[in-house]
């Protein structure tokens, strides 16, 4: 899965805490998106995550879980994305929760299916920023420095610029990408239609579309063909 992830251009992120009817789920899974990521910053439980996974498994699309709560880790996903929030002073969100998880559940962890993500949270108003106490004042040059630490020192396979809920600063995203050698750059935040998808896809490797699924599914679906070339 780590290798396959290198080719992803488009990901839909589904929140297990938000209702989604069967027709909408089918449209998402059959949209030719590269993967469905399951995750959210609040209200994610074992029950709602496993229920969503079993519905997703009717389809062939790769399914990955972005782990935010130790109690909600469900077996059976293709891969497990492990966020490490880089721009926080709360060490729990950088490494603390991770250490406790390994201490407690190390023997159960499918190490070959773990994909760590170096998160840089840039919308101070989003839930992830509040939960992880991300540094709201992170500047463009700091973001680029965090990204280089993730890429060149920590050798994380993914750097994730998180603007959840708002469309970000594409100049900053572009600057960050230019600094990366090996990490893949994920961008998420405020992609609502083909136009915003194209703008973001031009300056990152992989776009993540979340809220738009729940706000305007028809427009959200147009983000796939906007960024993926069909053979
Ligand atoms: C959220 O990055 C994703 O974690 C996507 O952001 O919900 O704003 O699309 P949106």
Automatic annotation (TrEMBL):
The gene is pcrB. HAMAP family: GGGP_HepGP_synthase (MF_00112). It catalyses: sn-glycerol 1-phosphate + all-trans-heptaprenyl diphosphate = 3-heptaprenyl-sn-glycero-1-phosphate + diphosphate. InterPro entries: GGGP/HepGP_synthase_I, GGGP/HepGP_synthase_sf, GGGP_HepGP_synthase. It is an enzyme of class 2 (transferase). NCBIfam families: GGGP-family, PRK04169.1-1, PRK04169.1-3. This is Heptaprenylglyceryl phosphate synthase. CDD domains: PcrB_like. Homodimer. Gene3D superfamilies: FMN-linked oxidoreductases. Pfam families: PcrB. The lineage of its organism: Bacteria, Bacillati, Bacillota, Bacilli, Bacillales. Mg(2+) binds at residues 15, 41. Sn-glycerol 1-phosphate binds at residues 13, 160-165, 190, 210-211. Its cofactor is Mg(2+). It comes from the Bacteria. Signal peptide: none annotated. Pathway: Membrane lipid metabolism; glycerophospholipid metabolism. It comes from Paenibacillus segetis. Belongs to the GGGP/HepGP synthase family. Group I subfamily.
